[in-house]
Amino acid sequence: MMSVSWWVSVTLFAITMTGTPGPNNVMLTASGAMYGFRRTLPHIMGILLGGLTLFTLIALGLGALFQRYPLIQQGLQIVGALYLLYLAWRIASAPPPQFDATGDARPLTLWQAATFQFVNPKVWVMGLTLMASFLPAQGTLWANALGLAVFMEIVALPCISLWAGFGMVIARFLKTARAWRIFNVTMGLMTAACVVFIVK
């Protein structure tokens, strides 16, 4: 049975890590503005699913594998940087929703968002710190890891959802095609800027 201070510490850690700016939250803001909250839900669920899977795998030895074979980590960093730049271009070049006659633009799917977590450096730092600092020593490893990861994602759900909601609020002030283009380019540049944290 974990102490109250342990639960408080994990909760504060989860809020701090998932509620602050990063690639996921920047993209959720853009998606909330462009597509609304309902169409952004698969993106949100994908982030949670990907994080849950990654955190559990880190505790079961994936983090140690990266330490032993740094080339794997470097390869993922390159893939992550390229994919993030692609997503940044998609956001920056997306047409305003009310002026999009083709209907081709769409938010990230659940599986796209889940896969992205494996190349998202902030999620890796989050998972490594979470498991190193808060994984209980007593009990079954896989059960403790899964339970801790599930709790992390429960706390994360309202935190990341707020960013999609923030995007919806911003969308109310974007009344013209020019305003939408400025917003999309800004969000695209912010997403691209996250590459700095991958390649540094």
Automatic annotation (TrEMBL):
The chain crosses the membrane at residues 43-66, 75-92, 141-170, 182-199. It comes from the Bacteria. The keyword Isomerase does not apply. One of its GO terms (cellular component) is plasma membrane. GO terms for biological process: cysteine export across plasma membrane. It is found in: Cell membrane. Keywords: Cell membrane, Membrane, Transmembrane, Transmembrane helix. It is a multi-pass membrane protein. It holds the Pfam family LysE. GO terms for molecular function: amino acid transmembrane transporter activity. PANTHER family: ARGININE EXPORTER PROTEIN ARGO (PTHR30086), ARGININE EXPORTER PROTEIN ARGO-RELATED (PTHR30086:SF20). This is Cysteine/O-acetylserine efflux protein. It comes from Kushneria phyllosphaerae. The lineage of its organism: Bacteria, Pseudomonadati, Pseudomonadota, Gammaproteobacteria, Oceanospirillales.
